[in-house]
Amino acid sequence: MLPSDRADNERNGSLMDRLTENLVRRLAGQSSRRGVLARLGAAMAAVPAFPLLPVTRASAATASPAARTVKAPSPFAAHAQAKDDTACDYWRYCAIDGYLCTSCGGGIHSCPPGTAPSPTSWIGSCFNPQDGRSYLIAYRDCCGQDACDEVNCLNTDGDQPSYRPMANNDIIWCFGTGTSEMYNCSTAAIIGSTT
């Protein structure tokens, strides 16, 4: 190598060194080590989320809900229907024990005239065959008149012993209504989704 070539290489090398040094010093002056580590950590944490980006979800969204087949979680759910709310096999009644307010002049979640809803309820988780989802159902007794003696159902999906009263359907829940503790019928209101 000629002495003139060596001098050119040293000048070019020193120019590149100076540019790199200036760039690194400017970067170091504008950021801290913690900031760089935080960005690096955030990038490392975000990498596993890339498969969840909309590209993956878009293909899943194209499948229609009817195309999804969800297995019924219990024997009651396997035979439940979603059309007649005056029948014991209606999907919301998976854990009901008593007369249906829908056959006594009330509704699925409303008491018949002349009765009052109990302030407390028991709960169940029922599978809706129409949408393939499970819902939390609050069963509330309607109180203040004799039992209407129409459609009486005893469904026990998820029924718990009496030492777990919030999920026990054998208790008459009319205490605390302020009127009469006489049981009339039971309602089944959706209070949330479990899936």
TrEMBL record:
A matching Pfam family: Me-amine-dh_L
Keyword presence, ATP-binding: no
Protein name stated in the entry: Methylamine dehydrogenase (amicyanin)
PTM sites of type Tryptophylquinone: 122
Residues annotated as the enzyme's active site: 122 (tryptophylquinone 6'-substrate hemiaminal intermediate), 141 (proton acceptor)
Domain Methylamine/Aralkylamine dehydrogenase light chain C-terminal: 81-192
Pathway the protein takes part in: One-carbon metabolism; methylamine degradation; formaldehyde from methylamine: step 1/1
Major place of residence: periplasm
EC numbers on record: 1.4.9.1
An example Gene Ontology molecular-function term: aliphatic amine dehydrogenase activity
GO annotation, biological process: amine metabolic process
Gene: mauA1
Localization: Periplasm
Species in which this protein is naturally found: Komagataeibacter europaeus
UniProt keyword annotation of Signal present: yes
PROSITE patterns recorded: TAT
Gene Ontology cellular-component annotations: outer membrane-bounded periplasmic space
Binding site for substrate: 97, 169-171
